[in-house]
Amino acid sequence: MQLTQFTDLSLRLLIYLTRLPEPGMATIQEIAEYHQISRNHLVKVANSLANQGFIMTTRGKGGGIQLARPAYTIGVGEVVRRTELNMNLVECFDAPTNQCRLIRNCFLKATLYEAQRAFMAVLDKYTLADAASFGTNVDLSALSGDKPQTS
Amino acid sequence: MQLTQFTDLSLRLLIYLTRLPEPGMATIQEIAEYHQISRNHLVKVANSLANQGFIMTTRGKGGGIQLARPAYTIGVGEVVRRTELNMNLVECFDAPTNQCRLIRNCFLKATLYEAQRAFMAVLDKYTLADAASFGTNVDLSALSGDKPQTS
Question: Which of chain B's residues have a Cβ under 8 Å away from the Cβ of A3?
Answer without folding.
Answer: 1, 89-90, 112
